[in-house]
Amino acid sequence: MRLFSNAKRPVHLGPYPLERLPRADTAPATGTASLPPVQDSALAPSIAPYKQLFASLRDGEIAPLADPLTDDPVERANNLKAGIYFLDADQAGVGPVPDKAWIGSPLPGHCTAIVILVAHPPEPAAGEPGQEDLRQAAADIAALRAAEIAVITAGYVRQIGFAARAHVDGACDVDLLALALTCGLVTVEDGKPVAPHVGNGFQLAAVTTGFEAAHDRPLGPTAMATSRGASAFFGIGGTRPGWKRLDGRHRPLHLGRYPMEKIARRETPTTHISEHVPRMPKRASFFTRALHGDLGVKPKAERARFAIKTPSSFSYTPLIRAMVPLQTGETAQSQSPGSDNAAANADAMKALAHALGGDMIGICTIPDYAWYSHHDDGSEIAPYHRNAIVILIDQGFETMEGASGDDWISGAQSMRAYMRGAEIAGVIADHIRRKGWAARSHTNFDSDLLHIPLVLQAGLGELSRIGELVLNPFVGPRFKSVVVSTDMPLRPDKPIDFGLQDFCEKCNKCARECPCSAIPFGPKTMFNGYEIWKPDAEKCARYRVTNQKGSACGRCMKTCPFNAEGLMTERLALWASIRFPGLRGPLARLDDRLRRGAINPVKKWWFDLELVDGRAVAPKAGTNARSLDFSRKIDAENQKIAHYPFETAPPPGSTEPHPPDRKDGLRRAAEAAKPPGEE
Ligand code: SF4
Ligand code: SF4
Questions:
Q1: Cα 596 to averaged position of ligand 2 atoms, centre (Å)
Q2: Model confidence over 73-110: pLDDT tens digits?
Q3: 530-532 and 610-612: which strand pairing?
Q4: For residue 556, how far is its CA from the centre of ligand 1 (angstroms)?
Q5: What pTM value is reported for the model?
Q6: Is the Cβ atom of 501 under 6 angstroms away from ligand 2?
Q7: Nearest CA to ligand 2 atom 2
């Protein structure tokens, strides 16, 4: 929570007011100062494979030069920094690469250094859950994150046509501290490197490149004193406040930043789930169906690239693909002493997931129907673990603000969250296996589990009108999930109730704003054993895959009142809606009147570029830059929504096209049963 709005703060300025710090012409001497070492910890063996993997991806092929591409060095620097802040770096700077900063031979033409600073995550206080797992691990976690950001940034720069190499912990050709001093991220105080607003608990990584961009200047002698002023403490201008209580950083790590413990819990979810929910084969997903040609030639051709057809989103894929083999592994022969305490394990795993960058964590027993029935090749899946740790990754507050939801950043928003989720869940699963309990992570690239029922059962949200999307009271629908399944004993959480069923009854903004009318204006029905506002999954998948004026789609997320800058993200409005049901309708209408969900141009930082035959070019069809559509007629009676339940799915493992029977789907939707109690 901020005391001051950051709606007018461009993304490239970052969370801290670095632009207000005094600058100098020369960098302070390093002297004997050196970066704090990455220490050994209980988590280090699980982090190490990921660091090695990222280091192996720090260089690569250079794509042809993007066209168009700005020559303005300031615009270039702003684009690079905003991309780094999108990846949650704490600070970013751009500077020259002084000769003396090279360790060994300089890379020819690498004239620019992009420096990334990641603060150490908080460690649990003495006696708090997770302390044993996380003791001395903060530097390693920050180094892992810095490496991830540097490797993706280098990949992006190569994708727009310039040489770029990442320099990370364990694979580095430059003096990172010298670069950070030169570009004004760090200074030296009492012989130690220190960063304004962050202190001395941070790690660095860098990218050197031939991409010329405007340089930041070194910090002036009074920079640290300025950073300790009242304006930074209270977050004037919408910066991250130094007052930790404001954004939940004072809370015990296992509880996370958001007060989920204040939301009412129930024994069962707020939507009915019958006793006989059929298990689905992976082949039934409409994205898989598009891949096999079920939706026709064009969706089949576009399926492989729709979410990664921009330089930005494409730069995540090497990491995401390379992490898949790490999702499974050998379990240690013997169990660690004390690792059979379900309550202690649950809190420790939550602390661990928060430290690694998860935004919200819940735990549940895995219902049978959450397991896919068959793999892609048609082989059966037998449920193999009891418990699930469900982790939500926020898709990024500020970037969503600058987007329409279906423009050229939409795919990158998804890929960023998928990448981060794979990293967090992979480290956790490995750590659990080292404690002697079987565990596997389930990511968007490779999952044996349907995530939606788990997000629901783990008490992280309620089913919303968007349909196949669970909505969280604090981050709304703006998240991706990742799951760790395990046999480790874990105390489950209970489902939550924050009045969303009634709120969505009184609001239909997502349905009105969906570009292809895939979200129903009408009431919930029963579908595959669930009480749900059933969206038209075929229409949605078709639009996302073939969107020509953007990459993928998340417009329903963007425009929901519970999303970033939506009214319901104001805590007062959220609590009012929970306590006073009569206010829900007026709050939904007020959100619209305040034009929440429209594009904030201040927050648009990315270049509209599309990869065509390996080159980034101006998108031929243009860009979706739609605003809110108040004129759209809401007509539940005549809306064409089709249902494709379990019995209409293609046979598991089939590779032949099985086009959906749309006429039958429309009939099934029209005849769908009402939820119990409403028949
Ligand atoms: Fe509609 Fe896009 Fe949401 Fe699909 S993702 S339901 S197309 S707004
Ligand atoms: Fe519910 Fe309104 Fe959000 Fe749709 S936009 S999910 S109806 S609150």
A1: 13
A2: 999 999 999 999 999 999 999 999 999 999 989 999 99
A3: unpaired
A4: 6
A5: 0.97
A6: no
A7: 507
